[in-house]
Amino acid sequence: MAENQENVKNEEFDWEAFETKGFGEGYSKAKREELAKMYDNVATDLDEQEVVKGIVVAINDRDVVLNIGYKSDGLVPTNEFRDMPDLKVGDEVEVYVEEREDKNGELVLSRRKAKIVGAWDKIQSALDNDEIIEGLVKRRTKGGLIVDVHGVEAFLPGSQIDVKPIRDFDVFVGKKMEVKVVKINYSNDNVVVSHKVLIEKDLEKQKAEILNNLEKGQVLEGVIKNMTNFGVFIDLGGVDGLLHITDISWGRINHPEEVLKLDEKVKVVVLDFDEGKKRISLGMKQLTSHPWDSLAEGLDVGSKVKGKIVNVADYGAFLEIAPGVEGLIHVSEMSWSQHLRNPQDFINVGDELEAVVLTLDKEERKMSLGIKQLTEDPWNKKEVLTKYAVGTEHKGVVRNMTNFGLFIELEEGIDGLVHVSDLSWTKKIKHPSEFVKVGEELNVVVLELDVENRRLALGHKQLEENPWDTFETVFTVGSKHKCTVLSKNEKGAILELPYGIEGFAATKHLKKADDSMAEVGESLEFQVLEFSKDDKRIVLSHLHTHSKVEEAAPKKKATGGGKKKSTPKPQASSSTLGDLDALSALKSQMEDDAKGGAKKKAAPKKAEEKKEDEDKKED
C-alpha cells in the first residue's frame, strides 16, 4: 500500500524543472528584478570605525539585533540601551562599527562608542559655534566639579562656577547646569567648561545700568561676597564695592568678621566711585549719626569717665568711652613719675579704666585724658617738707644718667639729682655708670629741697664722714708711703695710696735708684710733695726717697774730715696698706702734739745744740 502511494508522488513531481541548469533560471523575470533591487540596497562596502544608523529588528534579554543595511545584522548588548527604556522594534539608533567581521564572521557594533564619538562632535560644534549645552554634575573634585556632557566627563573649575566665590561645591552635585565649552584637549581627552561666562553676560547689562544710575550718597543693598583684614567686598548686583574696615563701624574693630558675616545682606551708602576703573567705595557707619553728636551734655574738662583700652602705642593709649568716642591718654599723664616708660608696661588692650578729661574739642572730635590726676600730686602733699627735709636719708632707684650726675626716684613723682662729685669722697668718677647702674638702688641724703621748682639735690658720699680731714694728718708733706702704680701717661702716673685714695707723680719723680723708671703694677715707696684737701690732690715722688742720701754723703766728708759720721736727721714716719690702725694712731698723735705746744718743738733744738758742742770738743 505504501509503495503504491510513493510511486504516485514521484510521478507527479516535475523532474524537468528540477533538473534545469543555471542559477536563477527558475525565477520569473519580475521576480528576478525584485531580488536584484533588494540586493542592490545591501551595503557591500562598509567602513570600520564610523558611526552609522541602524534599525532595531529584534530585542531579547541579552542583545538588541540591528539592521544597518549590511549583508548581516549586528548584535549590541542590551545594557548599552539603559538610557532608552522604551526601546522597541523598528526604532532607529546610531551605532559604531567596530569590525565588519570578527573571527566568527559576525558584524561587531557598539552604541556606547557611537555615543562618545557623537558627543565629541557635538562638543567641538558647541565650541566652534559658541553654543550653550546642558550637563549633569556627577561629583566634586579637587578645585571644581565633574560634569557629564553628552557622555563625556568635563571639568568645571571652581572659579568658573559663579561670579562670586563658592565655598561649598557639594550643593551642585546631582543637578543639571548649563555650561559653555572653553577648551578641548584631544590628547588627554580633556574638556573644560564654564558656567560663569553665562552669568557674566547677563551681569554686564546690570553693571551698565547700576553705574549709570550710581550717585554719591545713594543707599544700596548688597551681599558680602569676600572678606579681608582691611575690609569686605560687597556684590551690588553685578558690581562689586569695597567697604573699608574703617567705614564699617564708628568704633574700633580689628577685623570685619567681628561684626559681619559672609553672604550676609547689608545696606551701604556710596561714598565715592570711579566710572573708568569701576571702583566703588562704600560705607556702613555713615548710615547712623556720629556718636560724638550724642555725648552727654555734662561732659567737660575735669569730668571723670570710664572706658576700655582699645589700642596701646609707644606714646600712649586710647580709651574708648563709647563706640566711636576715644580719648588719648599720653604716657606723661599715666604717672606722676617724670621718667616716661612704655605704656605697655602697665596698660593692656581690653583693660577697663577710669580717667579724667583734660582737654575736649567736640568740633575736632578730640579728647585727651589722664590717669595720674585721680591721685594727689606727691609734691603737693603736706608731709613733703618734713619727709624730705635737708639731712634726711632715703633709698631710691636709679632711673636715668647724664654726664654730670644721675636721677633717683625716691617715690612715684619725687625725683632727685645726685651730682657726680657727690658719689664718692676718694674716687675720681668721670661718669656715674662707673659707680652704679640704671635700675639699681642707692642710699642717699637730702642736700637741698626746693618744693616750688620741684627740685631735690641728693648726695651719696655725705652718708660718711669726709676722710680727707683725717688724710690731712696722715699724708703730711714729707711723709713716705708705699704706693702702687695704677697707670702712666706722658705727664706722669696715677698712684694708689693707702686707704684706697689716689695720688699723682710726675714722670721725673718715677726714677728709681738704678736710673730705671717705675712701671705699672710696681709697688714702691713714695714721698708726699704736696697735699690739698680742698682739691683732693696729693702729689708724690719716688725720686726723693733715694736722692737725699746721695747728696748728703759728700757734704759730710768735707765738714767732718771723715773721722766721725754725723747723725742723720729723723725722717717722717711712713705707713703701708697693711697698717689698718695707722690712721687713728697718727690722728691721736697729732692731737697730742697740738696740746704739747712749744715744749715738743724745743726738744729738737736742744739736741742739735748738744751735738754741736760735742763736735767742737772733738776738733
TrEMBL record:
S1 motif domain segment(s): 49-112, 130-196, 217-285, 302-372, 391-461, 478-543
Protein keywords: Repeat, Ribonucleoprotein, Ribosomal protein, RNA-binding
Disordered: annotated segments: 547-619
A Pfam family the protein falls into: S1
Extent of the signal sequence: none
GO molecular function terms noted in the UniProt entry: mRNA binding; structural constituent of ribosome
InterPro entries reported for this sequence: NA-bd_OB-fold, Ribos_protein_bS1-like, Ribosomal_protein_S1-like, S1_domain
Example of a GO biological process term: translation
Any GO CC annotation of this UniProt entry: cytosolic small ribosomal subunit
Domain of life: Bacteria
Biased composition (Basic and acidic residues): 605-619
Compositionally biased intervals (Basic residues): 555-567
Transmembrane portions of the chain: none
Entry's family note: Belongs to the bacterial ribosomal protein bS1 family.
Matches recorded under PANTHER family: 30S RIBOSOMAL PROTEIN S1, SMALL RIBOSOMAL SUBUNIT PROTEIN BS1C
Protein name: Small ribosomal subunit protein bS1
